[in-house]
Amino acid sequence: MSILSLIKLIKTGVNMKIIELLKKENIKYKEVEYSREATIFNVNNKLNLVVIYGNNNNFMMERELFYYLNTHKLHYAICLVNKIEKRLFLLTFKIKHNWLLSSFSGTDKERLHLGKIVLNNPINEINLVNFLLTYN
């Protein structure tokens, strides 16, 4: 089963499949149930990986989720899953003062459209695993 298939199962509440993948790759993790729309995986106490789903390339980031991530000391990354086209995108944030912080600071909106930056950051399943292994 591909990583994309495993990640898609998270949306339906079947988190065991991605956990099996993380175990298979010997990636240390802790699952943090955040909301119905997002699951956070703490990878080896070095990275918070957020998985967010969309039916197209139109992804939204909740202010509350952003502040949750930005107030923790860990780096964070956002894996965006386009369920219709079966495409993955990965946004990484190694510093706390980034474009996402500036975007939320400049508005009172509770949700931000992530926009074209998503399309500029596609990733395949193999590179996603390799990225996660760098934090293991």
TrEMBL record:
Record's protein name: Uncharacterized protein
